[in-house]
Design goal:
By secondary structure, the chain is an alpha+beta fold. Helices cover about 15% and strands about 30% of the residues.
Length: about 250
């Protein structure tokens, strides 16, 4: 089998491209490394035109703008929720119960927001400066992120594709400093939890426990990169900003 896709340098979520996923075999005795389209597509979405509208927003016939709805990520705390008013399952519940997988990654990037002080008023400015960080695990060439997948069929063309959403959890002490606009981070799993997430029959309580797991900040490594990292030859190359405070690593 050809795994050349594992050498891809950088994936940008809002491009909705294909990423490397560990998908359990039907008997859950092993797994395949496959490509899935990043951006979970619910089964009720009719066709690619509807997918486009969902992902990028659209104006209806009355000129009203409908905001885009992204399904790149799924909050670990909310995977198994049901609609309180109707009792119906929400979008990710069935996948979390039946179709758990792992995204294979070597690093990811997040932006830190820093509010400069207005020189005249000495108060923080309204619009922050943003600085990108390269983030990985110490001593690890790759790691696993909890994810859920959905096979989707275009009801007009018959196209069928596996789609995936990565699971997020609350930021740990390091990621709270970096992703300080949302305080979230991917649910990065150590090997034993990764296997359990993907292969085992789990209770709802256990699914939520693993989905909200926080890797220790001391196990992570993070540093700033160039703001144009997405278009450079080496996006992971460190770049120092004199105005950016150093990160504090808690044990």
């Amino acid at each position: 089998m050809n795994y050349d896709f594992l050498d891809s340098e950088l994936h940008q979520g809002f491009n909705y491209g294909k990423i490397a996923v560990l998908k359990p075999t039907d008997d859950r005795c092993n797994f395949d490394i496959v490509q899935m389209e990043w951006g979970f597509i619910p089964s009720y979405v009719k066709n690619r035109e509807a997918v486009q509208k969902m992902r990028f927003g659209y104006k209806d016939n009355m000129g009203k703008w409908h905001q885009p709805y992204t399904t790149l990520n799924a909050k670990g705390e909310e995977l198994l929720l049901k609609d309180e008013s109707t009792g119906r399952e929400k979008m990710f519940r069935k996948a979390a119960l039946e179709r758990r997988c792992l995204i294979l990654s070597s690093e990811f990037y997040e932006w830190r927001h820093i509010y400069r002080l207005n020189k005249r008023t000495n108060q923080p400015v309204k619009t922050p400066d943003t600085y990108p960080y390269h983030i990985g695990l110490k001593g690890k060439e790759y790691f696993f992120i909890a994810a859920i997948w959905q096979n989707w069929t275009d009801k007009d063309t018959g196209e069928t594709v596996d789609t995936v959403a990565l699971v997020t959890t609350e930021a740990n002490s390091l990621m709270r400093q970096i992703h300080n606009s949302k305080n979230r981070m991917p649910t990065m799993l150590p090997d034993e939890l990764a296997w359990e997430w993907m292969m085992e029959d789990l209770t709802e309580q256990r699914i939520t426990e693993i989905a909200t797991y926080q890797i220790k900040a001391a196990n992570m490594d993070a540093y700033t990169v160039e703001k144009e990292f997405r278009t450079t030859e080496n996006p992971s190359k460190a770049f120092v900003y004199s105005e950016v405070p150093e990160l504090v690593y808690e044990v």
